[in-house]
Amino acid sequence: SSSSSSSSSSPKTAVIVGGGWAGFGCMKALSAAGWHVELMDASPDPASLKGGWRIEGGGGGGGEGRKTISRPIEPGFKGFWVQYQNIYKLVKELGIAESEVFTPLTRSGFYTPNGLFAEAPIFTDLPRLPAPLGQAIYTLPLFRGIPIQDRASLSGLLVEMVRYKASPELYLKYDRMTAKQLFDQLGFSKFLVDKFVCPILLVSLFAPPEELSAAVVMDMLYYYAMGHQSDVDVRWARKPISEALIRPMVAKIQNEATRANITANVNGNSYVKEILIDDDEKNNDNYTAKGVVVVDKDSGKERFVEADAVCLAVGVTGLQNILRGSPSLSQISPDLRKSSDLRAIDVISTRIWLDKRVMCPFPSSILADFPELEGSGATFFCLDVLHDDPWGGEYNNSQHSSKDSLNNNDGNKDNVQCCCHQRGSVIAADFYHASQLSTLPDEEIIRRLKEVLLPASVPDFANANIIDSWVMRFPKAVTHFSPGSAVLRPPQEIPQVNNLVVAGDLVRDLDHGSAGLSQERAYVSGLNAGNILIRRRSIADPTLANDVIHPILSTEEDEPQFKLARDTVSTLERIRQTLFLPLS
After folding, report:
1. Of 554, 535, 39, whose CA–CA distance to 257 is shortest?
2. Long-range contacts (CB closer than 8 Å, 24 or more residues apart) made by 118-122
3. Distances (CA, A) of 154 to 158, 185, 251, 323, 521
4. Mean pLDDT taken over the chain
5. What are the residues facing 345 on neighbouring strands?
């Protein structure tokens, strides 16, 4: 237990820089092992994942006049796929029923200016077949906009997907290649790439194929779509993720820390300006981080926080800002300096509250091929179906809950509709790779959404009026997995600094099947970062028990056909290396 293991040696103190899934995952692992933890984040309320509730002049309609109403918002609407095993385990640990946190599995639509282009079934409800045969058969009548011959060209990708990870050398070869180059090499039709594959990548990895690493694209496709028949199945949180999961997790961590007589503090408005290196602790070119310089965003005052270990759980932009303010750290760590060449992607989140209920054939949908998107990817979500309280405040006593609406659906998409909240539909729409859209006024972004994008998908949106709207830009907010980025992404363990670790979806060496821009990957990387520090302390102090390592669940094993193919290719790759043959 954590109390028994920490009693034989004084508790260590860790500073975690950054909240989110990675930061709180690291906090969870370290606190359970008996560490004091101080989490620093520049946002006012880190446990809200930088979202939450806003106070906005809203209301109106029906002669009520303007009111000050609290509305729920969050930065980006995120799903929970069936392979998110560690997050589902967290829900059980919190003692919350999955049905209280998540919706049932849902279907998704794919819309173009010409209407419905494709739709995804719930694969879990269908007889299981070997992957990807099941996906191919069950989507045959649903991918109505994609000719059979174009779908057939996808088969060549399977060969590459069992080969690209056969050795680190091969992976780097595919990482240097763009996904577009790979698709052209495999003979994908232009129609397939432009009309289907590109929009899918824009909403999953937030960039078009010509700007993405072929290796990372295959990582993502295997994890989310091709490895097992049901991998693509998704459910959604029934309320903002901060309220549903992050705050309960933080409360549990802090309650258990109080009982164990250790600290677990979450510090908002705390901007980490610099990581300080202790030159006196240098040992064989291995340095020690002695703490961080924190700036209080309200007062502007600086303070030094001493630490036995530091975890950087920030995104690309945050990491680059810290490095610019930490010249000593940058000087000694080429692994971190390389991350200065990483790029990040702009995202826009929006929400509109309408005066009319609109029938939504799908709770979640992709928007593709609209000129109004200007090169961005887009998704929209019917929160009347997905959220319990999409209006907030006084409008939360709806006639039917989202849970009832989804649970009463018999599987026919025509029966899924926005449930009967008193003030009509609420739509969340997110735009990715949105640099061009970000320069537009809020009003124009909302106009395009309400007058063009939504009515082209569901015509009845044209008959609804906007009661309130919200737009938020997140510049350089998510990792851009560009060609050649694998060697630029930091490892979890920084070789030159013996007590510094990195967590987040940007790390390159996480030994776990989760891939891409994944909540599961970020969470697992945080847990693993904590475990790395725990193991290092155990090595330094053999009296510590090993049972404090936080368990991490693996993704589902490869199906036999993939395992056999990959084992064969790996054997051939080892033979090639033994014979010093060139890489083909």
Report:
1. 39
2. 118/142, 118/143, 118/144, 118/145, 118/146, 118/196, 119/143, 119/362, 119/413, 120/232, 122/233, 122/411
3. 8, 12, 47, 42, 26
4. 89
5. 478
Which pair of structure tokens corresponds to residue 549? 């390592």
- Amino acid symbol at 166: A
pLDDT tier at 393 (50, 70, 90 boundaries)? Answer: low
Q: Which amino acid is at 477?
A: A
Asked if residue 401 has pLDDT above 70, the reply is no
Please give the share of the chain, as a percent, with pLDDT higher than 90: 76
Three-state secondary structure along 316-385? HHHHHHHHHHCHHHHHHCHHHHHHHHCEEEEEEEEEEEECCCCCCCCCEEEECCCHHHCCCEEEEEEHHH
Q: Which residue has the tokens 């050795």?
A: 167
Q: Where are the alpha helices (DSSP H) in 127-266?
A: 133-138, 148-152, 156-163, 168-176, 179-185, 190-192, 198-204, 214-221, 241, 247-259
Residue 226's closest CA among 369, 83, 77, 362?
83
| Alpha carbon distances (Å) from 228 to 89, 124, 215, 420, 566 | 20, 10, 19, 36, 15
List, for residues 486-531, the tens digit of each pLDDT value: 999 999 999 999 999 999 999 999 999 898 889 999 999 999 999 9
Query: How would you label 268-280 residue by residue, b for 16+ Cβ within 10 Å and e otherwise?
Result: bbbbbebbbbeee
Q: What is the dihedral of CA 5, 263, 524, 79, to 10 degrees?
A: 140
Q: How far, in Å, CA of 128 to CA of 243, rounded?
A: 35
Cα-Cα end-to-end distance for the chain:
51
Per-residue pLDDT, 415: 36
> Is the pLDDT at 69 greater than 80, yes or no?
no
Between strands 36-40 and 264-267, the pairing is parallel
The full length of the chain comes to: 584
CA dihedral 501, 506, 510, 512 (to 10 degrees): 140
Residue 71 half-sphere exposure, CB side, CA atoms within 13 Å? 24
* 161 touches 225 (CB < 8 A): no
447: left (phi over 0), alpha (psi -120 to 50) or beta: alpha
Cis peptide before 199 (omega within 30 of 0): no
Answer for the pair 211, 480: CB distance below 8 angstroms, yes or no: yes
Torsion sign, CA atoms 552, 517, 28, 17:
positive
